[in-house]
Amino acid sequence: MSVATGASSPSGTPGPGPSTDLQGLARGGLGNVLGAAMAALGGLGVVLVVTRSLPQEAAGSFFAASSLFLILATVARLGTPTGLVYVISGERARGNRDIERRTLRLALVPAVAVAVVLGLVLALAAPSAARVLGLHTDGAELMLRLLAAFVPLAVVSDVALAATRGIGKMRPTVRVEYLTRTALQLLLVLLAAATDSVTLVAVGWAAPYLVSSILALRSFLALTRPSGPVRQAERRRFWRFTAPRSAASVIQIVLQRLDILLVAAFLGPQQAAVYTAASRFLVVGQMGNQAVSMAAQPRLRAALARGDTDGARRIYQTATGWLILLNWPLYLLAMVLADALMRVFGPGYGAGRPVVVLLAAAMLVATACGMVDMVLSMGGRSAWNLGDNVLALGVNVTLNLVLIPAIGILGAAVSWAAAILVNNLLPLAQITRWVGIHPVTRGTVEAAVLAAVSFAALPLLGRAVAGGAALGAVTGAMVGLLVFVAGLVLRRRSLALGALVAALPSPNGRRRVRPSCDADLRATGGRR
Question: How confident is the model over 372-388, as pLDDT tens digits?
Fold first, then answer.
């Protein structure tokens, strides 16, 4: 069923056309990207403050402890954020608008219960955890115990915000998660770093979850109305989808954080600090991925729930082009300017340069694949997604155990890069075969070429002209930025940038309405 003709939901209510879906994606994605940019800068600021204010051993201890915290919080969420978006957005697409609160209840109660248990386990096992991770910094055990108290609050914040995204509202996530919590984290970490206490730094980093959990719940309640008790059929449907997604979400965070823990255990917290600093630019890019994916998730689910394959393809392909425009400049410049990037973190961090180059190359491939895991999950193939993640985790763990003792932090980078490729290329093959959706269009190819010329070819040419000096690469990147902007203007239709322009507020505070927007969207959508 084509959105070009106006799809109908099973309930008989008119479904959105191509402009509605993609302009909605643009509005949510644009707001999310701007918020994610602030969050990424704040997160990078935290890393800079920690690396430049604390000794490498203390910095590594903090990075290992915070990684363990995030793993535990993800385990406790039980995959409910994706389940909430899947169920709420799918039901709303069918015209059912009174299930939001009871769906949140059936997700939040068990998640918080597991979070409390895991927090208690971490508090009791803090001495053993510190010993296994090689954290010999003064106060490491106390740091782990204090972090344990905030695990349930992190779960409440994440789950409640996911429910608001299921409703189709991105603003609470931007306001609460990206802006408020990130700003508080940076401020409190900055203040705590002045005391030279890694324990206070950890508390300053975790304490904002108290604020974000309260604000997230308030935002959700303001958007919903009271509903009756949870029905048994709803409970079964929710957990049938969410259970495999729970394991997949745990595996994904383990893939992102396990290498830091293993580097700390095998090589010590100093090397963990270097590796964390070298891989933090990935987090900046991942924030961009997350921003666009969060906006796309409910719309992709709604399109697939309507049986609208063309609409889902259009959302996926357009989002992939935007992700390339957003993230390839970052990854390409990170590869070209890896030496200068590592010097920002302070003396002793230069050994991370090969890590930067290798991980950036892997992320170029991953970004070009688009949000493949989201297509699988929102299409109800969460078991497939789980299998892909299990295989990627197996590759990651095996290579880490072999390579970290042999070649140090470069081994961790090789392991993560291999897992990234497995976790993107395999689901790409699955969605191409399963539903006939792939990311390649004229727009995605043009986006990739434009980014490569602007932020790789021109900076490398500038460096060559300057005799290898970094200043030449920077000059080339500045020229490349001008070329990039000119390319965006000239190729705005094939890149579907008309939808983004339409999403911007006009000077009078209203949304712009552009009659040509549909033509811009059709220029990129649906080409197979």
Answer: 887 877 776 767 878 88
